[in-house]
Specification:
By secondary structure, the protein is of the alpha/beta class. The chain contains 12 helices and 15 strands.
């Protein structure tokens, strides 16, 4: 017996949910060759196979399902063991696209369908046309949280809070990416991320991440080969915020997680990609890149009809090894000089160019405020040029000082980590935002299969 609707069926083994993702193909009691298909974890929530029957697979030496050519059936991976029943037409969160009919032999316990597992237990199947259900989301976010070293975890209230409001916190998430970036690449950059990354160092359980989600390092690192930089994405997340720090999120705000170029260490691939350029091209290349970074912020505010943008100095703290337009390499004792030069030569010109471009393009002029930038070289430089912007202090205290219904807060994210990065052990803005908001729970494809992807046509000056 098989179903014919275009729906996914999510396996929930009520007796051993925490161990579900350890199941392999051999754990399934295969009743008939063409009737049972197990999709070996850990896949993304909605990742499916392009198959017509079980003969399209074989097992590798580890018991995992692979295609006839020996390649894994998934390009990336995620968390829960998933069984797909009936006709599938689906584009996966990692760019795999296909259609096929898969039948699975199942039984009924009253009116509840289940499959037989080899240990004799019942693997119950929950049916959903709308994607993962709240309990699955809750489990998955907590799985992600367990990847962190204890002191770097995001708040323990995030999983329950996000899973209770999938329509309000998951489904509105937007991923902005350059129009010349393949959608599958944008999806991978959104999904395959590391819990934390500081100066190239990781404070999470790498083996556990690999075993659970399928990778040890972020997709950005895998793409950082050769002289060119991977595409830059930006992610809008509606977010709950715990202003008091008491574990009671009471306010909902709009956050845009903006990614700067990582030039904080000579070990960073971004730094090396810039330094390999001729000296005369380094600064102009960075200005062009940051123009695209800022364009995404302005476009998001316009799309969501948010009239106020609370900017942060995106990328500034990542620029401590910026070489300067004269080509001199900055060293650790010249951090402040490098950051000042970066703000004057890169940040301010690209920000002003993006601001003016979007005002003209959208025929609207958002109100610009800054946070955590008081006394900065960037604000001083813009004031000298006749552009004076108010700084409203630090996050999250400044949340009470604006109309949150029309305001977009800009978080200074990084290329590799989950939003929030090291949270309580991260004293950058990203950590302050992560330690008191829900952005880690809905801000990546690790936990959020609902995000909407928006290509940006103009990302270069």
């Amino acid at each position: 017996m098989s179903f014919s609707n275009e729906i996914s069926h999510y396996l929930v083994n009520n007796d051993s949910i925490p161990d579900l993702y350890h199941l392999k193909m051999a754990d399934i009691d295969i009743l008939e060759n063409n009737q049972t298909v197990s999709i070996v974890g850990p896949p993304m929530y909605n990742t499916v196979l392009k198959v017509s029957n079980f003969s399209d697979f074989r097992k590798d030496v580890n018991g995992n399902a692979v295609c006839k050519d020996g390649k894994p059936w998934y390009k990336s991976s995620g968390g829960f063991m998933t069984y797909i029943v009936a006709k599938i037409k689906h584009k996966s969160r990692v760019g795999y696209e296909g259609e096929g009919t898969c039948d699975i032999k199942y039984y009924l316990d009253g009116d509840r369908p289940y499959v037989k597992l080899k240990d004799g237990s019942k693997g119950y199947i929950s049916i959903s046309e709308d994607g993962p259900q709240p309990d699955e989301v809750n489990i998955r976010i907590n799985l992600l949280r367990s990847m962190y070293q204890k002191l770097h975890m995001f708040p323990d209230w995030v999983a329950e809070a996000v899973s209770k409001d999938i329509p309000g916190l998951m489904k509105p998430v937007r991923v902005y990416y350059p129009h010349d970036c393949p959608p599958s690449t944008a999806e991978l950059l959104f999904s395959q991320r590391e819990p934390t990354n500081f100066f190239g160092k990781s404070y999470f359980h790498t083996d556990k991440l690999k075993k659970t989600f399928g990778w040890r390092r972020g997709g950005y690192s895998d793409m950082s080969v050769g002289p060119s930089l991977p595409p830059n994405i930006g992610v809008y997340t509606p977010a709950l915020v715990d202003i008091t720090g008491e574990g009671k999120p009471t306010t909902k705000i709009h956050i845009f997680n903006s990614i700067g170029i990582a030039m904080d260490s000579s070990d960073q691939s971004d730094y090396n990609a810039i330094m390999i350029l001729p000296e005369t091209q380094r600064t102009t290349t960075l200005v062009d890149i940051y123009f695209g970074i800022f364009i995404k912020i302005f476009q998001c505010a316009h799309d969501l009809k948010l009239s106020t943008i609370i900017m942060s100095l995106v990328g500034v703290n990542l620029a401590i090894r910026y070489p300067g337009s004269n080509g001199d390499i900055a060293y650790e004792d010249e951090d402040e000089e490098s950051i000042d030069a970066f703000q004057i030569e890169v940040w301010v010109p690209s920000f002003i160019a993006a601001y003016r471009f979007c005002v003209k393009k959208n025929n609207s002029e958002p109100s610009i405020l800054f946070m955590g930038a008081d006394g900065s070289t960037a604000l001083k430089k813009m004031a000298q040029d006749g552009l004076v912007f108010e700084d409203i202090g630090r996050f999250p205290e400044n949340v009470n000082d604006v109309d949150i219904d029309v305001s977009l807060f800009v978080n200074a994210w990084d290329p590799l980590s989950v939003p929030g990065n090291g949270n309580n052990k991260d004293d950058n803005l990203n950590g302050f935002v992560g330690r008191c908001t829900s952005i880690a729970g809905n801000g990546t494809g690790i936990t959020n299969p609902y995000a909407n992807f928006h290509p940006m046509m103009a990302t270069h000056i």
